[in-house]
Prior knowledge:
By secondary structure, the chain is of the alpha+beta class. It contains 3 helices and 8 strands. The chain has one domain (2-185): 3-Layer(aba) Sandwich (Protein Transport Mog1p, Chain A), CATH 3.40.1000. The protein has helices at residues 2-14, 87-108, 175-185, and strands at residues 17-18, 33-38, 53-58, 73-79, 119-124, 128-136, 144-155, 161-168. Helix 1 (2-14) runs parallel beside helix 2. The radius of gyration is 16 Å and the shape is globular.
Amino acid sequence: MKNILLTAFFGMLSYGVKAQSPTYFHGTYPGWSFKQVVLPADLLEEYSYPEGIKEVRFAPGMFDPSSDSYFSYIFLFTSPSSNMLTVQEIEQMLLTYYKGWNTMIGYKNGVLIQEEDIQVNLNGNDRELEGSIDIINGLGKGHQIQLYLELSAYKTQDGTYRLLGLVSPKDKKAKVWEALYEQRDQMSL
C-alpha cells in the first residue's frame, strides 16, 4: 500500500491538474498563486491508486530567478490512506518526484539533466523532517541549485495522511521563510 501511495504522489504531480478552490489554504495572499492536482482513478491502468490531492502555493517570485522568493513554495499532499510513510519512503518519494519533474522541465527548456544530478538529504523522523534537495535547475539555465525544506507528516482525526512541505533555495534566515511559515500557519489542517 505504501508503494501505491508513493506512486500516487508522483502521478498527482504530473497529471490531472484542475482549477479548483483551495481546500486547506485559506485567505488571499497578494502575489501567491495556487494550484491543486487531483489524482484521477484511471491514471495508469496497471496500478490501483488511492485518491489524493496535492495543493501548492507558489511564492510571488517562484518563477523569477532575480526574486528573493525564487523557487519558494509550500505544498500539502493529502491521501485517504492512513499509512504513515517512513523517512526512507519520503526521501524516495521526493527523489522520484524531483527526478521526473526536473527531467521533464529541463527537456522542455533544452537542459539535459542526469538522474545522478539530483540528491535528497533528510534528517529527522517520519513526522518532522528537514533537509535539502540538490537539483539541476530545469526552470533556468541548468545550474545547480540547493533547495532547503521542512516537512511535517501526520494522520488526521479522520484517518487521512498528510505531508506538508515548505521549500526554498534561500537560507532559513531569509525573509521568504517568514512568508512560508505565515502561509503554513494560515492553513486549516
